[in-house]
Amino acid sequence: MTSAVSFQKVSRHFGSVRAVDAVDLDIVPGEFFAMLGPSGSGKTTCLRLIAGFEQPTAGSISIFGERAEGVPPYRRNVNTVFQDYALFPHLNVLDNVAYGLMVKGIGRPERQKAAEDALALVRLPGYGARRPGQLSGGQRQRVALARALVNQPKVLLLDEPLGALDLKLRENMQEELKSLQKALGITFVFVTHDQGEALSMADRVAVFNDGKIMQIGTPEDIYQRPKTRFVADFVGSSNVLPPDFVQRYAGQHRWGSLRPESIRIGRAAKGDGVAARLVSTNYLGATTRLALDAEGLRLHVIVPAGAALPREGEAVALTFNREQLHLMDDLG
Amino acid sequence: MRSDRGPSAPIGLKLAATGGLLFLHLPILLIFVYAFTTEEKSFVWPPPGLTTQWFAVTWNRPDVWQALSLSVRVAAISTAIALVLGTLCAAAVSRTKFFGRETISLLVILPIALPGIITGIALRSAFALAEIPFSFWTIVLGHATFCVVVVYNNAVARFRRTSGSMIEASMDLGADGFQTFRHVVLPNIATALLAGGMLAFALSFDEVIVTTFTAGQQQTVPIWMLEELIRPRQRPVTNVVAMVVVLVTLLPILVAYYLTRDGDQIAGSGK
Fold first, then answer.
1. Which entry of A20, A297, B193, B246 is 20 to 30 Å from B148 by CA?
2. Domain-wise residue ranges, chain A
3. So what's the ipTM on this one?
4. Confidence of residue B266 (pLDDT cuts 50, 70, 90)
């Protein structure tokens, strides 16, 4: 099967900066694909390479089997939802949504009908006459989404579209985007630095760092079986354990990753487990996050709300199941 | 809350402010009054009598019409040139970063910072060197040097407030460069261009110094007025023309002010 988007050894350099460095990538048609990474990791540049705003320095890109190098953005069957929405302030909402059809030369009645339908799809029916300036952030985001979807793109690119929304709205939009994608069957490529967002929405996640892809996999793969220390630390702030530590408790001289929710806290007197001392507690609502000092190693433990907590400075013993300790290769 | 509900200003300050305003604007009112005087050889205060005959006299003087027509044509064409060049330059400077960008920005603004006499002398010697005879077009070129600045400044300020991703969004939605300019860029900078264009027109219309150096035998309105003041005959005609000039230059500046007051400065209106 042809990939929706395929990168072969794609690089994009800005002067001496390797924003994207020999990236290989295959996005399956119809999947919800997330590109996750800290700022400056190359994920947005990858998105702009797909959209056509950037051209690769080396390597080749194809979209549904067609070579994309040198093809300008306006000749690609790909649409983007921009981080700042980039709505046209001089046009009303309906004309904003109909813009893509207008420049393609589709007649006014037909394109307005299509724009109305797209607005209904993002649950903003009847908002056509308003100006973008009169809408809230969440509504603008929906307009930007409708404006992209009305063109029936083969791939929809979303550049941190939820970044500017408040928490409640963001959670609602996550669900809505996910069900919209299921209903339309369009390939979504979603850029985010929020690991929670990537894990909850995507079918597959690519974790970026320093212009390279560290790992591609299902959210569960990425979370439970991180391949590198970076992925373990960036996705869900795992406890990254050095080889000497792992040697003692698992018998192998390799780096290990231990999720903070996999650790249990017991009394120091029992003798087994890792001896540790409580440094601080962070109340997070549903859970509490504890920072502990285990023989000079800083470990984090997450316990559910209501659990009995040790006092600060108190000595405790930490235990975990051997299978919860995930071993990693010694990479970045 | 602003300070308009605070204690009122001391009486001395009020007097000083009133005095300042009167000093600025009384002489202009005086010009208007002299347009109606019956005394034609010299300006006497108070005017011995009032008449509207000078409007008819002015209407029938072909030299007034020639000067007016020349000024309007020069201002219109300089403004048109400035609109094209200023917009292109502003787009280049604000959209991309390139080596020497700040220098180019400074060089474009320089003609308005330089005294007009320098621009005038420089252009005159350049025309002489290139053996270009003085004509309508040499005046237009001279005026275009500072008209470009006004348009450029207004356009740059607007481009800076226009989100760059809007242009990308337009391309992303299938519009090529020309369609993007027509449907997105132009509507967003239109008021800035209108304001810049009106200011440029007003500047060109009452320009004296650069015109003196770049005109041949032709007289624009301000030059015609200078000549006229030397001759002690039908003096109030000059005042009638002055009133017209005030209206022709003041109205565009006011319109430009209202078009751009939400944020843009009327760059270069101080010249």
1. B246
2. 5-233, 237-328
3. 0.83
4. very low
